[in-house]
Amino acid sequence: MDSSVFPRGYASHSWTFSTSQLAAELCLSESYFSRVFRDTAGQSPASYMERARMDLACRLLVQSPASITDIAHDLGYKTSQHFATVFKEVYRSDT
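Given the sequence above, the corresponding structure tokens read:
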């Protein structure tokens, strides 16, 4: 039985990409892309993506019957322990 919280064909690896990959997709240098992104969004591309992953994780934890481990793996985290550590780091800054 497939334990993924995403529909078949949805690639969890789409949540794990680098700033250099994003820049290359837009035909920009990594440094220029990072600078423009930070100027526009107020944070680095990596920070933005991490927060987006955690926001999705929160929705899935509430709405999905999947386990924390399954959600963590589907969002590209290798272990649920790493997911929990990042979760605390992201939401600790909200308080």
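The two ends are 39 Å apart (CA to CA). Try to locate this feature in the token string yourself.
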